[in-house]
Design goal:
Layout: H1 7-38, H2 40-43, H3 46-60, H4 65-81, E1 107-111, E2 114-119, E3 124-133, H5 134-138, H6 160-163, E4 169-172, H7 183-188, E5 195-198, H8 200-222, E6 224-231, E7 239-241, E8 246-248, E9 251-259, E10 265-273, E11 286-287, H9 289-296, H10 306-313
Antiparallel strand pairs: 1-2, 2-3, 3-6, 4-5, 6-9, 7-8, 9-10, 10-11
Helix pairs in contact: 1-3, 1-4
Length: about 325
């Protein structure tokens, strides 16, 4: 009688050891990646930080449990490191400059390339914030994905059925056109948390598109523009759509900040009503950031030193901004 071979059992043990090592290595890589991206204001360029996150998502899968855990760890670390950034001149505080003050009790969600504050009462964002660069606009790695979907990152998201038959389009806040530099970033702009109901012809495809194009002009000319955009939620009562009663805003806003070559901070803001005409100039709706803060109840560009913020937000110099603003 031949003896039973031990080879299969040994192989199984070896396989378990390899699986255990692979799992441990994956966990360590994710932790290290999260620390690198969270601490990027100190030693890692933003573009590199974005590539690290994109690589992690490519390896583990965008919708995987592991990726969701990575994003939660990253959000925690980013919140923690906000308080240890070096504070001197605006140029040393570029990372996170676009993020407004948090709204108490509202969820803050970070997707590839942008951050948002979610207003569960209205089922639209308080604000969506991102940094837009000329390099990103010049990088065309992805076409428009059109994968509109609810956002599982929030407790209660708006749904596709809320928009169907409503007469309103799903209007991007962070435009898909600004995120062609990454397939993940492009796809993330189609979460419904990045949408508000917008009238299509005159607004979403008209004057709001002009505002988006003007913002892109800023990035192409100056290299970098910090953008905060969203619906005004202080001038209700509002029309709602769908079974979930998604708020239809009466107007949407943008707040923009640029650091000039000499270190001077330049800001401008606008709030454009949905009743605006397609051929109107956005110059009709320009205002200071201070005026927009009073309108929205939000606090923008809080990472600036107080004196710089006060000076920059109290005025705007129309001659500084591209002709598309006039």
């Amino acid at each position: 009688m031949s003896k039973k071979s031990d080879t299969p059992k040994t192989t199984r043990k070896s396989g378990k050891r390899r699986t255990g090592k692979a799992l441990l290595i994956t966990i360590l890589v994710i932790i290290i990646a999260a620390f690198l991206v969270a601490l990027s204001p100190l030693f890692l360029p933003r573009a590199t930080a974005n590539r690290v996150t994109a690589t992690v998502e490519k390896i583990v899968g965008v919708d995987s449990v592991v990726n969701k855990g990575y994003k939660k760890l990253l959000a925690f670390l980013q919140d923690f490191t906000r308080n240890i950034r070096p504070a001197s001149t605006p140029a040393s505080r570029i990372e996170g400059l676009e993020i407004p003050a948090y709204v108490e009790g509202h969820e803050v969600v970070r997707h590839t390339g942008y951050t948002l504050s979610w207003n569960e009462q209205h089922l639209v964002a308080d604000w969506v914030a991102y940094e837009l660069t000329a390099t990103e606009l010049d990088t065309q790695e992805s076409s428009r994905s059109e994968d509109f979907r609810p956002d599982e990152s929030v407790r209660r998201s708006s749904q596709l059925d809320d928009y169907r038959g409503s007469g309103y389009s799903r209007g991007h806040l962070a435009p898909a056109q600004d995120f062609k530099w990454s397939a993940n970033a492009m796809s993330d702009t189609f979460y419904l948390t990045n949408m508000v109901p917008q009238e299509q012809d005159n607004y979403n495809g008209g004057i709001w598109l002009k505002a988006e194009n003007a913002t892109r002009d800023c990035a192409r000319i100056t290299g970098t523009v910090y953008v905060v955009t969203g619906p005004v939620l202080t001038d209700g009562p509002f029309e709602t759509i769908g079974a979930n009663k998604v708020t239809v805003p009466k107007q949407c806003y943008k707040a923009l900040l640029i650091i000039d070559t000499d270190g001077t901070v330049q800001t401008i803001a606008m709030s454009i009503p949905q009743t605006a005409k397609k051929k109107e100039s956005i110059s009709n709706y320009l205002m200071t950031v201070d005026e927009l803060e009073k309108l929205t109840g939000l606090d923008f560009f809080i990472e600036l030193d107080d004196e710089i913020e006060e000076a920059a937000e109290s005025k705007y110099d129309i001659d500084f901004w591209p002709k598309s603003f006039r």
